[in-house]
Structure formats: structure tokens, C-alpha cells
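Reminder to self: C-alpha cells first, then the designed residues, so the page reads top to bottom the way the pipeline ran.
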């Protein structure tokens, strides 16, 4: 990627348009965060038919990548002004550091709450439905077989339960966020280069934070996923200034679109998929790094990374995407995106409850159809209740796009 200068009008693949007023929020950020949260909710109830309409069916990446990059964009918009003022000598270090650290603390408390809720929920299910498997699935067995170590692992984020294991990586990245964002503002392309190098080394040597207890590593390695979070931060910082991180370029747009289409075909055309998977295996046998020749999620393997970046760039270049995001029919998704932490936390509990119900009643055909929409409606109702009579107070990623900013342009 190269820094944005003036967009060359001769290579823009769409007509020029005027941007919103400086105080107008960009509807795409809230909209796509809401979409990502709903896809996480759906995908965390495996076996339901709604999974067919989530972005994991489009290629290699899924809602987790979308969540991280959109959260990074929102964080870049919300927190970059304080960091920039500190770098310019116009603000204090404390004012630059504490907002992101305060947010990380909130995320930490939510992670502990969700872990305890999951333990209690599955223990209740095991007793109520007389199914012992509810005590062993999703890495739950360690709380019974090695209770002392598991109780130690919960507060240090080393004991991670399946489907409650996304926030720990985000917490670590938010703790490192002020340093990452400061480097990205002062030395953007050097920082991006260093981030790519760290992603490469972490993937090649399979570096990760170890679990405790249980062995293995975190579900999402912070050393790998920092790259997509940094890209989001950089986009958010440039976006607030009314700039693009990557200029609109016809050739780049076509290349990104080709990769998105190719990834879809790779996934859904059996002959092509078999051929490409065979070629990846051959590359692996020749010594190519693991994170290049697989679709591994933990290490944010190259196919997943390239897919989410290509989708992001393509969507940022299409004017009708903003129109869809700003449409009145999209208002519920925008509202969900504006209250991401509440929706994510509640959605996690609802998804786990849905898993239990579908496991207990596997022969009830309508249940997988009904549970995800019902959970989405409950999430929306919870947001409406939460905001009833409240007034936003300060900058958080949820309110980031409502803050005054420079004229808003495209995201990537």
C-alpha cells in the first residue's frame, strides 16, 4: 500500500461525488460493524441455515476479520486525535494513553463475565438435561479436571473457552494500541512494514501466547492479528482527516475484485478448489511457510488476510455501498454497530444458549431457523433499551463515527 495523495481522476472506477459535511458520521462503519456482529452471532450457532449468507461463504475470511478491521477503524477515528496532540507536544501523555487502556479494562471485565457466564450456562445445561458432554465441550472440561489452574487461567486470559475467545486478542491489541497508533501516525509506512514483518515471523514460526492450563496457544494469535488491527487504525486515522489510506486506482480495484471472485470460486467450484489446494500442498512440501500455504485462522494465514483486505478495498471504492449503508432500512444494523460491545457480549450468551437448545433438540427442524433471528431481535431490543433516555458522553469506538471529523471520504 502507498500513502494517499490526490486521487487521479483518470483512473477512478466510479464518478466523483461530494463528501458529507464534516460532522456527518460515515454510515458504512456502523453498518459493517453491525453486519459483522450479526455474522458472528450466526456463526457461533453452528449448523443453522443462516450460515449460508455470512461472509465465510464468500471466500477465506469470516466475521472475525471483519470485526477486527472495523473495530480498528473505529478506534483509529476515536483515539487518534489525543495521540496526535501528544506527538505534536500539544497534549499530555496521560490523555493519550488512558482512553485506550480504559477501554481495554472494560473489555477485560466483559471477557471475565462472559467466561463465567459460559461456565455457568453449560453447567446448568449438563444438570438440567442430564448430558455430561456439556461439561467437556468447548474446553470446559479443565474447570472440573484442573480447577485450580483453570481458575488461575481465567483472570490472566490463559484459559479460553470455545466461542468466548475473541476478546483476549483484542484486549492485548488495545493495551498496545497507543504505541501502535503513535508509531502509525509518526512513521506510517515504516510501522506497516514492521507489522508485516512481525506477521510473517509469527506465522512462519507459529508464535503465539500459550494457554494456561491446557497447552496450545490462543485462538487468535495477537502477534499475527496485530496486522489487520493496525490496518484498521491507519484507515481510521486517515479517515478522520478526510484522506484515504490507499488511493482509488483502477488497476488495484480490478486486482482486488479479481481476488475476491477467485476466492469465491476456489471455495465453491470443486475442481478449482481441489487444484488450488493441491498446489498449496506442493508449495508446503517445497518448504513454503505454514501461514502461506494454509487457511489457518489462528495465525491469520495469507489467504484470509488478502481476502479481507481485498473485500475492504473493493467495498470502499463502490459508491452504492455508502447508499446502502445510509438507507433507512439499514438503520437497525447501524444501531447495532454503534453499540458493538453490548451486542457482542449479549450475542455470545445468546449464541451459546442456542447451541445448547439445538443440541438438546436436534430433531426440531424449525429451531435452527428460528434461533438466530430471535437472537438478533433480542440484541436489537437490548440496544434500544440501553440507549433509552441516555446521552453519549465521550469518545469510544462505538461513538467514534459520531465525533466531528474532517470531510469523510472512502475507507481504505
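Designed residues (412 positions):
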Amino acid at each position: 500500500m502507498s500513502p494517499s495523495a490526490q486521487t487521479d481522476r483518470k483512473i477512478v472506477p466510479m464518478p466523483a461525488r461530494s463528501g458529507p459535511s464534516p460532522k456527518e458520521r460515515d454510515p458504512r462503519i456502523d453498518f459493517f460493524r453491525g453486519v459483522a456482529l450479526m455474522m458472528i452471532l450466526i456463526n457461533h450457532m453452528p449448523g443453522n441455515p443462516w450460515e449460508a449468507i455470512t461472509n465465510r461463504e464468500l471466500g477465506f475470511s469470516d466475521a472475525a476479520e471483519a470485526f477486527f478491521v472495523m473495530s480498528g477503524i473505529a478506534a483509529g477515528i476515536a483515539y487518534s486525535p489525543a495521540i496526535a496532540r501528544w506527538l505534536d507536544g500539544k497534549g499530555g501523555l496521560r490523555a493519550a494513553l488512558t482512553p485506550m487502556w480504559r477501554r481495554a479494562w472494560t473489555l477485560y471485565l466483559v471477557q471475565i463475565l462472559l467466561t463465567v457466564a459460559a461456565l455457568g450456562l453449560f453447567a446448568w445445561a449438563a444438570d438440567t438435561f442430564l448430558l455430561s458432554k456439556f461439561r467437556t465441550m468447548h474446553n470446559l472440561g479443565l474447570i472440573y479436571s484442573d480447577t485450580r489452574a483453570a481458575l488461575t487461567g481465567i483472570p490472566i486470559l490463559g484459559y479460553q473457552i470455545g466461542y468466548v475467545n475473541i476478546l483476549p486478542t483484542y484486549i492485548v491489541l488495545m493495551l498496545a494500541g497507543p504505541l501502535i497508533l503513535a508509531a502509525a501516525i509518526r512513521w506510517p509506512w515504516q510501522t506497516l512494514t514492521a507489522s508485516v514483518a512481525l506477521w510473517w515471523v509469527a506465522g512462519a514460526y507459529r508464535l503465539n501466547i500459550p494457554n494456561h492450563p491446557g497447552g496450545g496457544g490462543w485462538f487468535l494469535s495477537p502477534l499475527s492479528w496485530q496486522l489487520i488491527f493496525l490496518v484498521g487504525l491507519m484507515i481510521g486515522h486517515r479517515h478522520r482527516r478526510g484522506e484515504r489510506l490507499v488511493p482509488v486506482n483502477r488497476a488495484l480495484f480490478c486486482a482486488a475484485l479479481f481476488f475476491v471472485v477467485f476466492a469465491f470460486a476456489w471455495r465453491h467450484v470443486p475442481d478449482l478448489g481441489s487444484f488450488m489446494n493441491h498446489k498449496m500442498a506442493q508449495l508446503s512440501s517445497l518448504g513454503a511457510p505454514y501461514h502461506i500455504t494454509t487457511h489457518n485462522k489462528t495465525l491469520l494465514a495469507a489467504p484470509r488476510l488478502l481476502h479481507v483486505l481485498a473485500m475492504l478495498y473493493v467495498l470502499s471504492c463502490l459508491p452504492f455501498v455508502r447508499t446502502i449503508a445510509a438507507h433507512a432500512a439499514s438503520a437497525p444494523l447501524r444501531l447495532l454497530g454503534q453499540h458493538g460491545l453490548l451486542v457482542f457480549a449479549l450475542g455470545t450468551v445468546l449464541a451459546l444458549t442456542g447451541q445448547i437448545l439445538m443440541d438438546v433438540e436436534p430433531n426440531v427442524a424449525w429451531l435452527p431457523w428460528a434461533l438466530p433471528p430471535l437472537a438478533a431481535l433480542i440484541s436489537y431490543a437490548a440496544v434500544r433499551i440501553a440507549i433509552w433516555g441516555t446521552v453519549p458522553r465521550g469518545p469510544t469506538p462505538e461513538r467514534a463515527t459520531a465525533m466531528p471529523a474532517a470531510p469523510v471520504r472512502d475507507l481504505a
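The chain has a mean pLDDT of 90.
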